[in-house]
Amino acid sequence: MKLRSRFAIIGLVTLLIGLVAMFPARVAYHWASPQGVAIAGIEGTVWSGRAREGQVAGLYLRDIGWRMRPLALFTGQLAYAVEADAASGFATANVALGAGGRAVLEDLSASLTLKDLQQIVGMPGLDGALSLQFERLEFDNGVPVAANGVLEVANLRAPIVHRSPLGGFRAEFFTQDTAIVASVEDVDAVVDLAGSLSLTADRSYQFIGQVAPTDDTPSELREQMRFLGSPNERGNYEVRLEGQL
Questions:
Q1: Which of 14, 46, 230, 242 would be a feasible disulfide site paired with 23, CB 3.0-4.6 Å?
Q2: Is 141 left (phi over 0), alpha (psi -120 to 50) or beta?
Q3: Hey, how many other C-beta atoms are within 10 angstroms of the C-beta on 189?
Q4: Cα dihedral sign for 12, 21, 93, 243?
Q5: What is the pLDDT of residues 112-168, one digit of tens each?
Q6: Closest-CA residue to 104 (of 66, 129, 62, 134)
Q7: Confidence (pTM)
Q8: What is the pLDDT of residue 7?
């Protein structure tokens, strides 16, 4: 390539980056607001800015900030370092948006309450402290297709299961060729739980596990376990949940 052509390309890229850096974020949002995203109080530019509040997939966020990662433009992606506060907690991640509805979150760190999510998951009374630490979380048109990280819940309350707190649980996610899988276990819970969760690209999920009462299991919950069938020789009941997101 001739030196003059190289300078022309460098100049064109510099011009494009300059235009992006100065383009108002409010205008860009009104032109191309993603489905399931509502933001208000937008200030700054596409390059760097903040928003007073917003909702992403039903989750309320406030004091949202973003800063572009310009090197990702050379790979055909818009990538940002994003931070936000939730009603009770925070979330930070590097977010890359690609063609065809692909979205990748890397170095995701979040601390939320499950109360913030009870309307999203359709479980009234859900509560507890949720923490996320994911190296990578990838979506294709809103469907998770890759996940590598850890989800932890402390002081879980799920009235659909039992009115008293159930304790803590942990799920470690990793990606296989055809599905996202996770190992799930209790952490100082009122029951012993161990199982595996899988989620395929067609939105189908399956959880298979075993649960057993402990000395801390409330008597009412012990009675509920009997509806799971007969326990095995170790006193464990089989749990199987299947469905589609």
A1: 46
A2: left
A3: 21
A4: negative
A5: 999 888 877 778 889 999 999 999 999 887 788 999 999 999 999 998 888 889 999
A6: 134
A7: 0.83
A8: 41
